[in-house]
Amino acid sequence: MAQPPSFDYLDYLGNIQPSVPSDENGIPVSFPETLERPQLPPVALERIAEFEPELADVPVEYARDALAYMGLRVMGVAAKCKLRPPHLVAGQNEVNLIVTDVGLSCLPTHALVIHPPVDPFAPLPTGEPTWMNLPHSRDISIVPIHAAILAANCGRLPDRWPQSRPQPPPSKILFEGGEIANGYRVPLVPFCLPYPKAFQPLAQYMYNHHKDELLNSLVRMRVPLGVNASNYPPIYAESPAMRKSIPRKARLYHVAYQCVVQVGANLPLIHEQMQLVEGFWKNLVALAVSDDGLWEVLQLAWEALVLAMTWARGIRAQIARDHALRVLEAANEGRQVMEEDRSGRDMRFVADYMRAQMKEGSRY
């Protein structure tokens, strides 16, 4: 099925963010406050029916709900599947799926060959052409997937997918790690993404729609959400309904705080997380994923990281000023600065600064 020609997502992604100067760490000095959510093509029922014909006459919303329930049942399947061989030959259109649980049903229907867009300036590969010596070969990953789950969540997918009914490979019973494993053959689907490293949390969310798990995968926190303990604040309540009374600003401050204390106000580590979230956003745009809950988590993660970066820069500026004053005082007194306690002083600065910020956040 052809995609609507009115939206060129590659052109959109290439022009949405203006370039800004960087600091001494190579980190941009400013970031957009939010990640723009463009108008995206909707999920098409005919794409869902292509992989699940029994849903052909069901409204998209009901089909998505049915597949979400299916996703909860099969989301652990991939952990029990392995792909062989690991090296793919160009032109190969199937791969062996090794299943270590002989009683497993609802097997993955396809294997995605995930890769970034080809760099037009990259040198041409030499030797025998294979998947693995393409210009982007180091970034290739192969992921087993249930195509219907993708179709229920994505408004933009590759046009033509091969039919899939897992078939036994030449040797049906294979030995994997000393145990008997069933083997099946599933078709390969080239799957280009702007940021392949951010596909795993998206795929996991498509299967389970678990917001806490998604947020934890996008933002590294000292205490991740979803902790089942009575001594944690209400934001950790097991039931999402119990968190609705928590203002968004308070949640934002909490996530940013947990991020800063987890990385010790390390600017490059926070920036690394921001790059992951930005890549996750690019993948959403490329695949036209319009799930409101997912976009809510994405915006919270991004805004929390922007806030964490602001706080971390404030902390680092205070630490630098403190160190400069100590050096000046030591020079005036004719002594050397004692460096052995600098780490402890830095951590106290982090704690004091964050205590002040959270006091501000408690007003919301």
Automatic annotation (TrEMBL):
Protein origin, superkingdom: Eukaryota
UniProt name for this protein: Uncharacterized protein
Species whose genome carries this gene: Fomitopsis schrenkii (Brown rot fungus)
